[in-house]
Amino acid sequence: MNMRKTQALLLPLAIATALAACSKKDESAPAAEAPALTLDESRLPPVNRFQVADLDETKQACHDFAGYANGKWLDANPVPGDRTSWGAFEMLDERSNAVQQQLAEQAGADTAATGVKKIVGDLWATGMDEAKINAQGIEPLSAELAAIDALSDKDAIAEYLRTSAAKGGNFLFGFGAEADFQNPDLNIAYASQAGLGLPDSKYYFDPDKKDIREKYVAHIARILELSGVEAAAAAQQAQQVMAFETRLAKASKSREDLSRDVSLYYNPVSLADADALTPNFPWSKFFESQGVAAPQQFSLAMPDFHKEVDKALADTDPSVWKAYLRFHTVDGAAPFLSDEFVQENFNFYSATLRGQKEMKPRWKRVLGTINNQAGEALGQLYVQVAFPAESKAKMEALVANLGQALEARIQNLEWMSEETKAKALDKQAAFTTKIGYPDKWRSWDGLETGRDSYIGNVLAAREFNYRWELGKIGKPVDKSEWGMPPQMVNAYYNPLSNEIAFPAAILQPPFFDPEATDEMNYGGIGAVIGHEMTHGYDDQGSRFGATGKFENWWTEADAKGFASRTGKLVEQFNGYTTADGQKVNGRHTLGENIADLGGLATAYDAMKKATEGQPDPMTDGLTRDQRFFLNWATVWRRNFTPEELKQRIATDEHAPSQFRAIGAPSNLPAFAAAFKCEAGAPMARQGDAQVVIW
Asked: Which stretches of 58-162 are assigned E, i.e. beta strand?
């Protein structure tokens, strides 16, 4: 049982920021609910806008652009106690949460609600009933723990893994539907690695993570104790669980490996070949137990991991398996149990790993659960009251302008042959853009929730979502489906469908402001749009063609030229070091850095085209070009706790925000011209130091 939502199957090719909306009045529009939902905007926190007063005139834009643009704001805005980072994204997230809170409160108060409003209301009401949750303690897990205690041999363990997975409770490996790399119109099953409690496989071996490993063992022991295991036995079992996970980690790919080689997710095999690879865990039996028809093939990704699990079934004492399964069952459920479990979960995963000082208030935690388990259901309510439909036309115009700018940039590339350009342009022309929220809402029919048990509702939603996922296997890909709910402050590119999507919640300053001047919107949401488009041409997105098929559309010479240019970007970011001496990993962050560079350059071109022939307004004494780059920096103003920054350096595909603020613009001559940077200045890269890709 694992209630922590994992992205084990999703390709790590996207995500940076976002866009906006849709206002159709037919079945695709927000469903009407009774009584009508309302929003008190006076209760919403402010957004984060660029202000000229934020500029630190003691710093030079050409030498310390991040400090010049953001230093004063960062000094005045430390990380709140219930956060591990604080900046533009987090401020919009707080605003989105405040909207969601009002909606959830209204849904929870409506005991006669039906449909998605009932689901949201039931999760909210039971999640906020702290007294009932505490009274229930660990009792909701008693049957599951008894089943684990009864396991006696490898066959019983294998059967348990199958039956628990069928209820959505599989934490040992990822399993679900995704488009076939070679036939992206059809969903196939993918099985991938999972099973680790620490953020990455490297955490089990890196010398600087020794302290984290020791605290993790203590956490395992504490969770086992809380579940009813005697203290001495819990301590012994914790060591066994750690040794077992270390074994799995040795057979696992690191997050860096997975982010830089998307082909690792695709290993098509027949059921017979899969069964031969893991005889102790036959995949033919697994598919049957999940109610999924036997496929001709599926992707058994990271096969070495699955081979190791198979070996562990044969050579690991059942008592170790039981300790491992008991720990992860309780640990995954801890956020939804009584206070002592919630506190221990916070102590390790939030305080120790990320440096969070205070636990989020219950209402925020419950909203997080609703978003994880029924995000699109809540999204249907969100867009009824919080979606600025009048901005849709402006957003569509921005997207169109960015597309034209990207097309022109590709056509004018000096380093790429006409043959490869034609393929790149085909891909650009085939982009699908999703704005705001889905044209067709997902059905939630069949999900039964109530007011009796918080974790009962979470478990019901978990199983429902898993069955929904399995229902896609062997079926055509639904191109209307979204990968994010409308209330999420983010955006993404999906290479298998060649689409970019921008949820409604990000259609706010500093990204988009319908009242702002063009340069501010192009420096904000324009660069975000360009970023997501450029993901189609980063080091991994560029391995997929216009239809989403995994294919090589590059000439050999162009591929070498691309690799040479991306290598220079790796070197650039390898040269960045945090104030406490941590080095950025340019290889791990390469995809996002390519997208930033191409996205900002494309947005600048689009801004210049949109304002062609218009006089420079010289707002607050700043030129149009200066304000464009300053709003880009505003997007990336962000403070981190030391622990959060350390974890991000180790695991995140994105470079820390202060380096995103300076990395892309330092390669653009337009930036040096805007701020009159002299040759040799850090923000005016020239010659071999300058990176030009898209």
From this structure: 85-87
